[in-house]
Amino acid sequence: MILILVSLILNFLIILNYKKISNIIGIYDYPDKKRKIHLKKVPLIGGIVVYINFFLLFISVIFIPDFFVENLKIFFTKKSNFLNLFFISSFIMLLGIYDDKKNLNANLKFIILIICTYILLIINNDLIIDSIFLISLNFVFFTYDYAIFFTILCFLLFINASNMYDGINLQLGPYFIFIFFVFIFKLELFIFSTLFLIPLFAFCYLNYNGKIFLGNSGAYFISFLIASIFIAQNNLDTMISPEEIFLIMSIPGLDMFRLFIYRIFIKKNPFSADQEHLHHYMIKNFNIRISQVYIFLLNIIPFCLYQFYKSLYLIFVTIAAYTLIYILLFLKKKRNVN
Question: Does any domain span residue 263?
Fold first, then answer.
């Protein structure tokens, strides 16, 4: 509990001094009057704020006797598993910071993320997905010789979906908050999740009026960590089913899939930026606050419904609902233009 208190005090000080911290770090997102519609430069320090709390967790594991056994062993099983994840996540955090500052080539980022994920899987093979048990079908899907390739693909899909989903204020932050609450109630990762929830709430407070952004550093680092937790719990056969994981990740994933198909169809790079995301259609049809609420509800409703109706049909209903919402927003946008 002392660690949580330290985190609360630390993040309160960050809220009070975010401008000074931003000036020291000196990484900003500049408006371009096209895709980036904010009016002035905005500090990209949200990910760094979250990482500071992750570093507190690392310090506690290293220097506090029995901390790992009492708080993390039930999930990570070995201290080396947590430490390996920390160091690879830290490197991805640095990659994101460099990308925020220098705007790395998309293909180069993709290759580096593949290498980082591959290294993590080699040193921690507990994260390799050998099988997926679909509870609703009572069916086991085995990955066989493609296990490493499939696992890397899962990492990359979620990282890219999360990064592409970070489009408007209070979109990705509340989505991550929802996931860490799931970790508390379904996986009993209380200390671990709380040390992410505190800075994410601090970030959302500042992000509400666009005072700071999460940045690629935050999107890459947090999504990589979340993907690791989901994969590890799948292999440990714990309390979150693959169906629930799909539903949690469905809206960012479906939006990414649609955009990839659309961009390939018009002969553009799938990783190129545009204003065809679901949130762009939302804010063109509703005000920003209503759009934030609608998007958050879209993220949590499928998972919540599954807690009462454990049916595979919910996956198809979610896909159909996303498709219908997109079509309705698209048609409304066309009418407004005409």
Answer: no
